[in-house]
UniProtKB/TrEMBL annotation:
Coiled-coil annotated residue ranges, if any: none
PANTHER family in UniProt: PLATELET-ACTIVATING FACTOR ACETYLHYDROLASE (PTHR10272)
InterPro entries: AB_hydrolase_fold
Transmembrane segments: 6-23, 30-45, 51-67, 79-98
Superkingdom in the source lineage: Bacteria
UniProt keyword terms in alphabetical order: Hydrolase, Lipid degradation, Lipid metabolism, Membrane, Transmembrane, Transmembrane helix
GO biological process assignments: lipid catabolic process
GO terms, molecular function: 1-alkyl-2-acetylglycerophosphocholine esterase activity
Name of the molecule in the record: Carboxylic ester hydrolase
A Pfam family the protein falls into: PAF-AH_p_II
Amino acid sequence: MRILEIILLLIVTILPFVKRPLLKIINKKYLLIALATILILHTVIESCRWQLIPAYLLMLVLMWRIISIDQTKTNKLTFLRGLGYIFIIILLIPSWFLPNLLPVFSLPKPTGEYPVGTHSIHLKTNIDEIITKDENDKREFMVKVWYPSSSIVSGKQEPYLDRANRVSFINKYLGGINPNLLNYLDHVDTYVYENVPIVEKNFPVLIFSHGYGSNALGYYSLLTEIASQGYIILNLNHTYESLGSTFPDGREKFFDYEFQANQTVNVLERMKPVKEAFKKELSFEERHAIIREASKGYSVTNMIKRWTTDIIYTIDQLENWNSTGFLKDKLDLNRIGVFGHSRGGGAAGQTAIKDTRIKAAANIDGVQWGEMMDTIYHVPFLYISADWPAEHEDINSHVYKNKSTDYFYESKILTSAHPNFMDIPFMIPIKELAQTGAVDAELGIKITNELVTAFFDRHLKNNYIADPKKISQKYELLEMTIHQGDSIR
């Protein structure tokens, strides 16, 4: 919460119970002026928001009581006064709960040398769209570019999430309330500016793929930091499998729950042998054969292949973008990396297998369904895992059996959970609702940012001072094992 909001809440919590003694030492007029001043400052500086309506009501009641109070009468607890105190206590519950449930949160400020700009690109393909029912539909998706800027003076700070993503976020987490009730997000400082000038030099290119059914644009804390360190990031929005997409003509496309249901009809039955394989006392090789067979035709395997197609199609555009338009001469096409979170991390890993233009790849807490079980990476690879419980099936221990002929970094952030790599811990700071881990939200994303940056600095920028191992030595919560493949031994 913001400073004046906290002051306002403390006033309506404490003052109703101490107003009479306070008025013996402070003139009523001055006290009212002070309260009105705080309310006006909050309105002007921070702006009003609906989560504070109970607090505003309490403030108005409090000011009315101060005006009407008669100091000559004895301070005796009457029935009506008792009801008034009960009313105050009841109203204090939503006064504190609502602003804490949906706060005007603070994202971590980027630490790199560059301010960050954003630019949107609409990609239309000739690939058949299999998710929609219209047989004539072709695949299209949005790409949001995060880049180092030379100046943000003339730019407009980007609001946190567009309407489509706010609507979809509400539908998923808050039961479909009016999307206008998320207008408080306009007050979040994103540290990102739309369509500001790009630095006149070329930068390594990173492709980022989001989690399945998640907010494609809900990674400000991750992507802003990495872009500020001198990277151009192409943030893909996989249409119909992200929460929401907004196209330049105003069309909004949302997550397709019907397609999801059709794709997962037999998923429990297909995955049953995998779950049982982890419960039985099987050798690694026996379990490996079961998992390998179950992954064939698995809906997630097919989804990761679709997303890999999106990523490769985007990479195919880089040469043209580097020749003309906004990104002209800004892309270092010899230094391309790919990374993602959750299913997007799996798609990033799959892309590193399929496309030799990728020089380094990272998977942030995603299960690597696809072809990796039958092959080996030939580029540096970083795997970051959340701290999953012991009973969680460790599919990746089989997927990553062969590791890489280059460096393979296997890491885990202790006490973290799957959503800790997104902005969710900042948007919903109540751990039980956000399903985040015990790790401090800022510390968890700080470790992730430093680790991902060090990895790409080392393996794309050839900065040998940068070293993921040093990041693991810096933080007790970061466990890491480094495997060195045959090509570097």
